[in-house]
Specification:
301 residues, mainly alpha, 2 domains, globular
């Protein structure tokens, strides 16, 4: 069993990049957002974080737009204000540090570096940065819930020809239709179309090697999350059940099969508990550690 390895998904993401086209009705909106994200003052702040983390500016900027409307007064890890520790997942961030970040409000740069490198580890790379690799990072920054439903995540492709009907309307609540029966779409723009327009506006923001595509290729079906473990519950539901047993969180994870932010946060907690690399991805080593811990928790017959 593999985790969510980029090499296995790379052709899929490359196809997203090659075939991504803004919906005509969203072109002006994408342009407006990209121009706001490439304003000189914004680029200066983003570049400071890039120098500290090596995370491309367009990756940072598009996450900030999705999470909190590109607001420099908020923590881009979850959109909470910088005047206090965060109360949403990841909670309690950032920890206070040396002056001037030894009290709240902390600086946006300080919180962003924490969000990107400690909470979500965007700086830990398994492949060189490219737009295809950025799609991988964007998707799992948000979580694999849409992939579990067989959909390309709107966090990446919202507002383009690649977007499919379906939206999480609340934690663990996924819907494909409105009450009147019409298709339900996430209305936010995805990271990819905004990033592509940002690079058109400011070519210096380009990163990684270009993808040479002679003609648009068929966009493949979304690869299911490769998680499957035996027992009466399987896959992500098995993981959520196991995490509840081991971590004893209050409230517990909803056992809905959605690999969203709360489930990903629990994954990181278990990895840390077992001394494994903290990447928020479920792999063989983590599953073996979970199995061993669950076995040790069973009362003797």
């Amino acid at each position: 069993m593999a985790a969510h390895p980029f090499p296995a998904l790379a052709p899929e993401y490359a196809s997203w990049v090659a075939n991504c086209r803004p919906l005509p009705s969203r072109v002006a909106e994408i342009d407006k957002v990209a121009r706001r994200l490439t304003a000189p003052a914004a680029l200066t702040r983003l570049d400071r974080v890039r120098e500290a983390t090596r995370i491309p500016v367009v990756v940072q900027a598009t996450i900030g737009e999705r999470e909190c409307g590109f607001n420099f007064a908020k923590n881009w890890g979850q959109g909470d204000p910088l005047t206090r520790p965060s109360i949403h997942v990841p909670k309690g961030r950032p920890p206070l540090g040396p002056p001037p970040n030894d009290r709240f409000p902390v600086s946006w740069e300080y919180a962003a570096i924490d969000a990107f490198t400690v909470c979500d580890r965007l700086d830990v790379n398994s492949a060189p940065w490219s737009l295809a690799y950025a799609c991988f990072k964007w998707e799992f920054y948000n979580g694999g819930g849409y992939r579990a439903h067989g959909l390309r995540t709107p966090y990446v492709v919202g507002g383009t020809n690649l977007q499919q009907a379906g939206k999480y309307v609340a934690d663990g609540v996924f819907q494909t239709k409105r009450p009147d029966g019409s298709p339900l779409f996430d209305s936010q723009l995805g990271c990819l179309p905004v990033a592509l327009r940002m690079i058109e506006l400011v070519p210096d923001l380009a990163f990684g090697r270009a993808l040479a595509v002679a003609a648009p290729a068929l966009v493949p079906a979304v690869t299911p999350l490769p998680i499957g473990v035996g027992g009466s519950l399987t896959g992500t539901k098995w993981f959520q059940y196991s995490a509840n047993m081991i971590l004893a969180r209050d409230p517990p994870l909803l056992i809905d099969g959605s690999f969203g932010k709360l489930t990903r946060d629990a994954c990181r907690d278990l990895e840390a508990l077992f001394g494994l690399p903290v990447d928020g991805l479920i792999d063989d080593e983590l599953c073996k550690a979970i199995d061993a811990r669950l076995a040790a928790m069973k009362p003797n017959a």
